[in-house]
Amino acid sequence: MITASLTYPRESDEWVKTVVLGGLLTLLGFLVVPTVLVAGYLVRVLRGTMHGDDAPPQFDDWGSLAGDGVRAFAIALAYGLVPAVVVAVTAGLAAAAAGPGPRSGLVVGAVGLVGGLLALALGLLAAYVVPAAVANYAEQGSIRSGFAVGDLRPVLTSGTYATAWLTGFVIVLGAGLVAAVLNVVPILGTVVGAFVGFYAVTAAYYLVGHAWGDCRGLELHDGEGETGTERPAV
């Protein structure tokens, strides 16, 4: 699956155009709208791969793409608010405990350490849940499905999803390391990193989509979107 995920973005005659567009949108992500469009593209990746479609989608039908992206962005933002709130509360408690004397310093340090570790743990948990939540939205088409515990729990606790998520995480991490190395040349790391990062996250969401389809027992489609063979048991 690792090899399949890394070749997936190239399984299209227009893959260069798709990667260039995705990289440019990623590079302009600070403008928010490009980030939303990339999120919409990843929804399409999930929607196709969960049904066994190994041909990557294209950047087209921009209105639909933006709609999917807004909903996926909202789901991710909702889960990300939890660790953000913990960070804010920790900062408030540390500020309240601040004062003269070494004892105050120890209290502030302890509060910061505990709060930081808790925020890190919750951040990793959110990063683990978000792809599955977006996949459930991609399958069912309702933003509420991104928070449907009954649908998410069996997938999130499965070895199939955990393996796919961890593999995808390693791929994205590897792309980040490549960008970091390239940063020795000013600007190069940022520019190339955007394209490598888009390629990597597309490969990672390929894995998540397949894992979601396996765990949910979804029907496989052929290349034209028609129902094809049954998904093998996992």
TrEMBL record:
Ribonucleoprotein listed as a keyword: no
InterPro entries in alphabetical order: DUF4013 (IPR025098)
Keyword annotations of the record: Membrane, Transmembrane, Transmembrane helix
Membrane-crossing residue ranges in chain numbering: 20-43, 72-98, 110-138, 159-181, 187-208
Descriptive protein name: DUF4013 domain-containing protein
Organism lineage: Archaea, Methanobacteriati, Methanobacteriota, Stenosarchaea group, Halobacteria
